[in-house]
Each structure stands twice: as C-alpha cells, then as structure tokens.
Amino acid sequence: MAEHAENQDRLQALMARRQAAALLHDINSPLLTIRTLSQLLLEDEKSNRTEVATRIEAQVDRIGRLLDAYWQMLDHTIPASTDPATGIPQTTGSTGMATGPLEILLVEDDDIHQEVGRRLLAQMGHHVTLCESGADALRLCKSRHFDIVFVDQHGPNMLGTEFARAQRAAAHAAGRPRLVGMSCDPRTDEMRSECLLNGMQDYLEKPLTRDKLATILDSLFNQRPHAG
Questions:
Q1: Are 161 and 194 in contact (CB under 8 A)?
Q2: Rounded to the nearest 5°, which phi and psi values hold at 176?
Q3: Could you read off the pLDDT of 168-200 as tens digits, one per residue?
Q4: Can you tell me the distance from the alpha carbon of 169 to that of 166, in angstroms, rounded to the nearest whole number?
C-alpha cells in the first residue's frame, strides 16, 4: 500500500510538471503580444496609445486567467501529506520531519506574491493570515499568536527590518514568532545579513516556491532549541 501511495504521488507530481510546462507555453503568446505592442508605443508616434493600452490590458487579463486556471488544477494535483492518526495535513522538510500545521502571518503588498504564498502554505497544511504592511502586522501580532511571520523587506510604510526591531521590542522572547524576511532584491547575501542583524531568523529570496518554504519551515521548527 505504501508503494502504491508513493507511485500515486510521483504520478501527480509528473502531472503538475506537465501542467506547469503547458502554462508556460500558453503564457508565451500573450507575453510576445505585449512585447510587440510595447515596441509599437516606443517606435510609432502615430499609434493610438489608448487602443494599445487596452490591448495590453486584455493580454494581462488573459495571463491572469491562465494563472488562475493553473492554480485551480494544482490545488487538486499536489497532495498534502497527512497524519494517519488525525488526518491533519502536514509538510515535510529536508530532514523528513513533519512540522505540522502552523499559524503563519504573510506580510506582502503585491497581490501575486501574496496569492502564491497563501496557496503554497495552505497546500502544505498551514493556517495563513494575510496583511499588506508592517504596521498592520504589528497590530495583528499584539492580538493573535503566530508561529512565524514572513515579511516583505520593501513593504509600504515600514521596512521588514523595521518591523523586526519593533516586534522584538514589543514581545517577550517566549512569545515572539520567528521572523523571515523576503525580497526580490538580487543582492541576496547583503539582504540576508541585514535581516539577520535586525533580529530575523532567516531570509527568503522571492519568488516563493514550495521547496524554499519547506526548507525554511523545516530548519526553524525541527531544530532544538528554537531561536528566540
């Protein structure tokens, strides 16, 4: 039975990869169209800018629909491991130890990164709360318990490192959530050092992926003693 389940997982993972390849193929066409229209705006002064902008928006909407359809398929394709005793979804990291369902706060103002992060963490069996700014995150952390906070370094009104310093000052060590900074900044080593120096436990380079999230959760929640 275990071998059958493993084969099923492999088959579903293969299906997910094929669906991802099909998605990339489908998105390529509207992206090329957008590039052509952008060149038209730059090179042809007589072009109808309103019409071109409308056509670009239509292509962006098309990409959005393709992504939505892909996520819906993925929800039914990637299996979440479950505890056989409770039936609760669990995620397994690099050590093979289940981290269990966690209370996670995702601080992200970009709609796409926010939705990707929410879906991936939910598929891994965790409870995800969303907010868009460090200030909102501070208020939430005062009224609710979170095991971990993923915070965008370049959020509105407050940097992720500013949030980390404020959170450490506001909470006792025993009640502090673990903090992970996020950024698209290509200066990965510099960003990681800045986050760690300001009291975060780790740093994650965007875009978010299931493997990146699983590795960080495994590292932070399967090591003893916990960083505080």
A1: yes
A2: -75, 135
A3: 887 655 567 999 999 988 888 999 999 999 999
A4: 5
Angle between helices 160-170 and 188-197 (to 10 degrees): 20
pLDDT tens digits, one per residue of 209-219? 888 999 999 98
Residue 153 · residue 181 · CB < 8 Å: yes
Q: How many residues are there in the chain?
A: 228
What would you measure as the largest C-alpha separation in the chain, in angstroms? 68
Q: Measured between alpha carbons, how far is 220 from 218 in angstroms, rounded to an integer? A: 6
**Site of tokens 């239509």:** 58
Sign of the four-CA dihedral 66, 13, 9, 104: negative
Question: What are φ and ψ of residue 127, in 5° steps?
Answer: -95, 120
Q: At what angle do helices 134-143 and 160-170 cross, to 10 degrees?
A: 20
Give one DSSP letter per residue of 119-145, joined into a string: HHHHHTT-EEEEESSHHHHHHHHHHS-
Q: What's 98's DSSP letter?
A: B
Between the two ends of the chain, the Cα-to-Cα distance in Å is 41
Q: What is the dihedral of CA 202, 204, 209, 213, to 10 degrees?
A: 10
pTM value > 0.70: no
